[in-house]
Amino acid sequence: MRLSTHKYLYFLGIAVTSAGCSQEVSFQKDVNPILQENCLSCHDGKGEGVEASGFSVRSYDDLMKGTKFGQVVVPGDSLSSSLYRLIDHQADPKIQMPPHHDEALSAGKMQSLSGAQINTIKAWIDQGAKNN
Q1: Residue 28: helix, strand or coil by DSSP?
Q2: CB atoms within 10 A of CB 36
């Protein structure tokens, strides 16, 4: 069955429009719950993650402050954001976050984030890492 030219262009237009549109990711509704559930136990203002790096996820301001080594979120650029690179397995397994290398697993620490959680954080960063 062949589609008419009009129907073909209509469906092509829907596909292109859908592919180009992305839903805005909310820090409060989408990103913060991931951070609170998976990162806060170490990065709560006084945990081992804060002691090691100075990085806290207690608030948006703390997150954007970064670590004692510098910024972890570069608004609009997930590939330059160490937060994204660490959670997306683009770093040495010993520093991936949440810790899920062999030593961390044997100590009962957290597993890696799901692909959906990683993509949510990536999209939020790429959309400007807004406090929304």
Answers
A1: helix
A2: 14
Q: Which residue has the tokens 């520093």?
A: 95
Scanning the chain, the segments in alpha helix (DSSP H) are: 5-20, 32-38, 48-53, 60-65, 82-87, 102-106, 115-126
Cα Rg of the chain, angstroms: 19
Domain boundaries, the chain: 24-126
Maximum CA pair distance of the chain? 65
Q: pTM, whole model, 2 decimals? A: 0.76
Q: What tokens were used for 77?
A: 């650029």
Beta carbons within 8 Å of 36's beta carbon, 6+ residues apart: 57
Beta bridge partners of 70: 67
pLDDT tens digits for the chain (132 residues)?
Answer: 454 444 444 444 433 333 444 799 999 999 999 999 989 888 987 778 888 899 999 999 999 999 999 999 999 999 999 999 999 989 887 787 887 545 554 555 567 899 999 999 999 999 999 999
